[in-house]
Write a structure and sequence with these properties.
With 238 residues, the protein is mainly α. It has nine helices and two strands; from the N terminus they run H-H-H-H-E-E-H-H-H-H-H. A hairpin with a 5-residue loop joins strand 1 and strand 2.
């Protein structure tokens, strides 16, 4: 029993450092290959977005059912407000329009064919790697936090888990909407609390509801994929 617990803790530490290393390498790569390159100037925002997506992942490593109550809820509150920054990365794909991806006819109309511009495809590859990694690992962090919450409340059932995931992803979808349209930054919760409160009281309409439903479904689908991968048997049958 003790040996199994020790091995599990070792695997957990290894997992955490692998994830951290990938994020830190990604930040360095984004700074050197995108932020510092004039040709990619419109995409310098990716460095900040990547860092903001890393924050909830790191925080999730410090949330466990046995964490002291005050520390647990303080870290959870910060994690909750930063978590939307992870799936938010998926919406950055729309900025690829800045590359003018379509071949144009002589009259200026789009043909529907994509340009074989390798700089554009390099940005597509970079953005895809960052967005997919941040979204998947971010939702993994959400899964870990939900597990810690259920452990603390003693409500460990699949129904409770799905319900809590739905609540968190719905709240995250509202956060993504606030960041993408009114351009509310996570830091504004502290630096502009009054303006933020007024904004939160004025955004509720059908458009927001439709957006939240779509983005929540997307996050739930990724979470379902995560569960499927975790349940898949290994090659050796273990």
């Amino acid at each position: 029993m003790a040996g199994g617990l020790t091995g599990q803790m070792a695997r957990e530490r290894t997992f955490r450092w692998i994830v951290r290393s990938v994020f830190w390498t990604g930040l360095l790569y984004t700074y050197l290959a995108i932020f510092r390159q004039p040709v990619f100037a419109p995409y310098r925002f990716l460095l900040e977005n990547l860092f903001l997506a890393y924050v909830p992942v790191e925080l999730s490593f410090h949330l466990e059912g046995k964490t002291p109550r005050v520390v647990f809820w303080a870290v959870f509150a910060v994690w909750f407000f930063f978590y939307p920054n992870a799936p938010y990365m998926l919406t950055d794909f729309f900025h690829l329009a800045l590359c003018d991806p379509y071949i144009l006819r002589p009259d200026g109309a789009r043909t529907g064919l994509l340009r074989p511009d390798m700089r554009m495809w390099a940005m597509f590859a970079n953005m895809s790697a960052l967005a997919l990694f941040c979204t998947f690992v971010g939702i993994l962090s959400m899964h870990r936090v939900v597990s810690a919450l259920l452990q603390r409340f003693g409500r460990w059932t699949m129904c409770w888990q799905a319900a809590l995931v739905l609540v968190v992803t719905t709240a995250a979808s509202v956060g993504i909407y606030l960041g993408r349209f009114p351009r509310l930054h996570t830091a504004h919760l502290v630096t502009r609390p009054v303006e933020t409160a007024k904004l939160l009281s004025s955004i509720w309409d059908l458009r927001l509801l439709e957006f939240v439903v779509m983005l929540t479904a997307l996050q739930m689908a990724v979470w379902g994929l995560l569960l499927l991968l975790r349940a898949a048997p290994s090659r050796n049958g273990g």
